[in-house]
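Before the break, one more example. Copy the sequence into your notebook; we will annotate it together after we see the structure.
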Amino acid sequence: MFFRQYYLDCLSHASYLIGDTTTGRAVVVDPQRDVDGYLADASANGLTIVKVLETHFHADFVSGHLELAAATGATIGYGAAAAGRVEFPIETFADGERIVLGDVVLEVRATPGHTPESISIVIYPNGKNSEPYGVLTGDTMFIGDVGRPDLLAAAGVTADTLARQLYHSVHDKLLTLPDATRVYPAHGAGSACGKNLSTETESTIGEQRSNNYALAPMSEDEFVEAVTRGQTVAPLYFSFAANRNREVHDLLDADPITNTLTLDEVLAQQRDGAIVLDTRDDMAFATGHLHGSVNVGLGGRFAEYVGKVMRPGTPITLVCEPGTESEATVRLARIGFDRVLGALAAPIETFLAHPELVEPLSRLSAAALTERIDSVHNLVVIDVRNPGEVALGAIAGARNVSLPTLLNAIGELDPRAPTVVYCAGGYRSSIAASLLRSRGFSDVSDLVGGYDAWAAHQASPIRTAS
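Here is what the structure looks like once it is written out:
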């Protein structure tokens, strides 16, 4: 048997290539949109990808099923509950149905709860009567958590209904597997598809039975309460990506070319409604950036955060560190943000030549913010962390507007009021501050080091003595 996990840190996304080395038949499960890695590994190991299997309609990334099908002729497969819900040809698999690759056999188990069509895939390496090697759990069960059941509330499927389905999926379909069965989920820590995901990317049924809070002995009602409370706010793009994964759409170029743009072209696109997205780190952005641009650093969870503060379909013009333009374009494409118009040529040289178009981002130390709170009577302090983070401590009087809700909440804020935004460490607050300034807020600063720096400053002996 050939088995490989592919882990994409920037989206906390795991996908899999499984093949039978005797027949050369293979499947890919839950692929990312840029599929060259699967194709190269299949070719190097004498495998032919015959099926692309999706554990559910993903909401946090646009899958590569169409790209793989086009490249290999593979069929696309889902659980039976997906029938009639997609625009392209698929085959569906009923609960208990098996896919025979050769000696390697895959068993589909219907495991609704995160979504109605969710499945898990049990891998038998030596025939259907052998001990299972592992189970691909999709978003049904993670390492340390289970999938959130609340993402379809807007579509009329209640969190309570899905949570009760999830309870039975976990207990009746997954925990019935032997304790030694390896667990391979579709996501790890950082994903917004759960709230308590581990940094580990694999485990076993036995370990999860012992260590996963959601699998502790409890009634169905207690389970529903445990898995529905405390979930983070889902990024704006989630519903878009889930729909995109059911649609026929343009394929991702294997080697996308990002157009090089002059300053005049960038300014014209900005006037026509494009967002200038500056992907440099927050310190470089703060030093100087094109007026009206939004900062989301490429070094972090770039695409996910773009999807939290920009609407799908927004035309985007990039400002990048030279040589990173293609990376930014591909990472945006992974969540379905395909309208990248190009990237500004030689941004630093351009900024130096046109200082009248460049502005800094105001950044405050914890000490400076303390002084401003004491001296500016109408100061607005906005905490863009998630509610769970806020519950552990916050700046007194701050208004909590978590980053995924900020774009929709801008109309409730006063663009004339002096405003300071903060997060845990500074990455999200730079995004938030730049977003507000791009929307006409005239006096916006962010807190360097975030709440962590604020808490340390408040606790310092020097401050206490003063």
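The mean pLDDT is 95. Residues 363-465 form a domain with the Oxidized Rhodanese; domain 1 fold (CATH 3.40.250.10). Try to locate both features in your own notes.
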